[in-house]
Amino acid sequence: MVEYRSFTNTDPPKLVKLWHSCQLGRGAAEGFTTDAMESTNFSQLFFDRKGLIVAEADDRLIGFIHAGFGPSDDLTCLDCAKGVICTLMVLPEYYHQRIASELLKRAEKYLIEWGARSITAGPPGRDAPFNFGLYGGSEPSGFHISDTNIISFFEKKGYQGIERFLIFDRHITETKDPVNFRLVTARRKMKVVITHQPNGAKWWWFARMGRLDSVRFQLVPKEGGEPVAGVTATGLDYYLNKWHERSVGLIDLDVVESERRKGYGQLLIADVCKKLREELVTHVEAHASEKDEAIIGLLQSTGFSQIDESIVFYKEVK
After folding, report:
1. In this structure, are residues 226 and 220 in contact, taking their beta carbons and an 8 Å threshold?
2. How many CA atoms are closer than 13 Å to the CA of 121, on its beta-carbon side?
């Protein structure tokens, strides 16, 4: 007999055990403790136990789903019209018993009762309230296609894939830094400045990133002025047991549009990788929307190779 209920304070060790037993792909961390799940989920101010629904049988957890809400347009609070499903897991031996379907049904009901008009499953980092550092690698960006079961599940449940991300990585012990005249010219004009947060960071940035070890690298003119490019580096310590090397994720990579095609993006990424190498980091990962040809080209030009893909699913609520 399978029973369904909301999260209780005795569940974290069971949830961690369940996570590690679900045979997830490369995008899911492994070997972490309850402290990691506490930091990335339960300790968030907007965590609601009713949004984390578990399936229980034979005195053990056999599945769970975690639903929440995305941010308002101004990134200062939650927007309950934007429902999100961050996690859905079922033990392999309980596949084909409609447990995932029942969990999804209950999660959708929870979101709709709070006013959701749409539901995103596998939200991208900009909309993900939970699991930063535990799922997705650099950041949540949909469900990884290496987790084939969950991809086919949401397709069958009427969710549409609305955004696809390409996942790149680079082993920076292998020196692949670009060398060209444009880069030399850019280095003469620019310098890298390190800060602990982006300029004008809003509440949502602190909610997502405040508990992670991260720094912001910005490329600024040596003679003074506004940054022309920036990227945030986040520690991926929870992936040590999965990837077996010290890894860092690069997120929020951007180059001012008027300053593109001048080598500034290449210079920033090359210098960031150099600084990370000096800190004994060996592996760097970054994601890019498949539509963002500029960022994809920038990553490829600085030695990154595609290793996986992920899909964001979406459904309107009637």
Report:
1. yes
2. 26
Residue 23 has pLDDT above 90, yes or no: no
Burial 139-169 (b: 16+ CB within 10 A, else e): bbbbbbbbbebbbebbeeeebebebebbbbb
* Residue entry with tokens 């090359």: 270
Phi-psi region of 263 (alpha: psi -120 to 50; beta: other; left: phi over 0): left
Task: Supply the CATH number for residue 72's domain.
Answer: 3.40.630.30
* Claim to verify: residue 227 and residue 262 sit in the same structural domain: yes
Q: Domain for residue 314, yes or no? A: no
Structural domain range at position 263: 169-307
> What is the rounded CA–CA span in Å between residue 8 and residue 265?
46
> Do 214 and 156 share a domain, yes or no?
no
DSSP code of 284? E
Does 313 fall in a domain?
no
Cut 0.85: pTM above it: yes
For residue 81, report the phi and psi dihedrals to the nearest 5 degrees. -75, -15
Percent of the chain with pLDDT over 70: 99
